[in-house]
Amino acid sequence: MRSETARLEAFSDGVFAIAITLLIIEIHVPAREHAETLGHELLRIWPSYLGYLTSFLTIGVMWINHHYVFELIGRVDRTMLLLNTLLLMMIAFVPFPTAVLAQFIETDGARAAAALYGATLTLTSIAFFAWWRYASTERRLIREEVPDDVVNDITRAYTPGTLLYGGAALIAFLQPWLSAALYLGIAVFYALPLAQWRERLARS
Amino acid sequence: MRSETARLEAFSDGVFAIAITLLIIEIHVPAREHAETLGHELLRIWPSYLGYLTSFLTIGVMWINHHYVFELIGRVDRTMLLLNTLLLMMIAFVPFPTAVLAQFIETDGARAAAALYGATLTLTSIAFFAWWRYASTERRLIREEVPDDVVNDITRAYTPGTLLYGGAALIAFLQPWLSAALYLGIAVFYALPLAQWRERLARS
Amino acid sequence: MRSETARLEAFSDGVFAIAITLLIIEIHVPAREHAETLGHELLRIWPSYLGYLTSFLTIGVMWINHHYVFELIGRVDRTMLLLNTLLLMMIAFVPFPTAVLAQFIETDGARAAAALYGATLTLTSIAFFAWWRYASTERRLIREEVPDDVVNDITRAYTPGTLLYGGAALIAFLQPWLSAALYLGIAVFYALPLAQWRERLARS
Amino acid sequence: MRSETARLEAFSDGVFAIAITLLIIEIHVPAREHAETLGHELLRIWPSYLGYLTSFLTIGVMWINHHYVFELIGRVDRTMLLLNTLLLMMIAFVPFPTAVLAQFIETDGARAAAALYGATLTLTSIAFFAWWRYASTERRLIREEVPDDVVNDITRAYTPGTLLYGGAALIAFLQPWLSAALYLGIAVFYALPLAQWRERLARS
Q: Does the beta carbon of B17 lie under 8 angstroms from any beta carbon of chain A?
């Protein structure tokens, strides 16, 4: 028998690992008739590669964060199990808008595709925030030895994420390309080891 | 060498995590020709989103239950391995009826689709019940320190699940939409932290 | 740092769990035009359900065996890593012949499909045997505390598997249906808790 | 709470296991109309089988190496998390070029397909090298008890991999078949228990 938190953590890690690896099956092998111009065809689908990169970094960063805050959790209850399931449901959903965005960014469907992608990440980041607020409010599920400062810092660090994604989703209706660039930019920004910068953003 | 139950639990967790994450690959990216009306097209496939939500919650709740009762199990034998394999076989099957239901709920195939979905969940819940009955009858595989009350409570709590799913499956032949709504309702009911309500149902 | 055998075991469990769960994606949702006769269409693809059942039980039993013999292994070396990789390569291959068999058992391609399925399981069982022989010859990787009897019993118990699958694969060329029935029969036979019967077969 | 390295290791193992098992879904079941000549059709797609073998061995060997060097790591930092995510992103990408190479090796697209495959493995091996260099430079993340010799040996052993894959990728533009044969040869060479040979290569 493992501890309750260890099992929930392992199950969550499994879903993260599968969702991130499934991203590849949305990049489709060109049809046989492209044989003569395969090199050109493989370059033409560059939005698929960028989409793969963006979503891989995004889910990767979310895993790192999930993993980091989970270490502060001392026990789980039924509500926590539900909130964690909702969060995983959003994470596992990401391959779909990724494929939609890659397929339609160069078409008239770019607005709708970029908005879907942004809406998904906004909901994901709201789910993450709800998860954390439930766990941290009045230190409900937090380990005793974790100082209050750490808890407050995380709460502050989470707020900009939702705003950034929500903003990028709104921009999608005006400038879908800019919006797509922002998704990649946000992922890179959070992936890079720029702890000081992120802190500054959280404080502002 | 991990303990026998720990390994079976980890393997089962793996299958649950993969089955739940695979649900997304049944939501198909719209074809290229929908570029101009992509927004409309993405809304039109709402049954796919609801199907995803329903099955994600359903498998999620089953994982939570599996996980909970597994903590009461002290050892496994060959029969248990077989029953657990059958249960996992049903869980891993769920993405198929989910996709069928989402694709056909708005067509003449709604009855057959809703019945297939209900039949799958009914069988899953029978497999779960058989698993538990084998483990718990005369406390065959139950840890010594688990009180009889806990075992009896679980046995009682499991019965309504099979009846609910069986009933919703029968309703599928008359009112497929009602049946689909029931599947979602049951999943939400079990996912919400309504312990007292579930207990009341189990006692009735 | 986990022990070397624990990590190899966990990685192998992961591949088994994914291969077994991927079986479902080879059962295809009927096309939209079947809406009016969906019930009939869902029954018509029964070979897919039987294929799913057969391969799920087969991989499930192989996982149970892999898991069981791994407990006797005290250390791994480079050759063992290679043999285990080859075994996993065969296990992960099973979804392909399963789908081929389900699709072609009712057509002129039944012979080739049943032979492919049988060849895959025969090779899998040879890979398993090689794995075990390498580990057990002169007790190369066996834990000290495991008695010789246990090692010899396993060696004997493995031999009929290869012969059974090889035989069923040959029958495929004459009677593909009989061959398919044998694959299911073998899986059920090994899955059922019939320890005494299996032992009798191993001794003959 | 597991140790930081144990969780990163388990997450990485998950991605490796899923990527390696997903290789099978790129081997497509022949279409129904091939029923009469199914045996011939199943032989005709031999490049898919060879691609499966090559990529399975390649990812398998990379898992073994990842696993081996991870045992020398005592702690992880934010940069390490990013580098590991990039490495996993390359590993999870492998099923795509594998499918492209299998589909186009016998067509006019062979050059582009073989170059894509080689470019992917070259980038993967650069990602691996960067990962290791970051961890090992001035023993940044290395456990105290690991001798300097072991660290230096690994650094030397990694260099030829990148050169071999880069070379094979360049050959793709002239002789795609030779290049494909080299990918398989390199995988077999590293998979076989030829420790002395690999050491000799590393020293040259």
A: yes
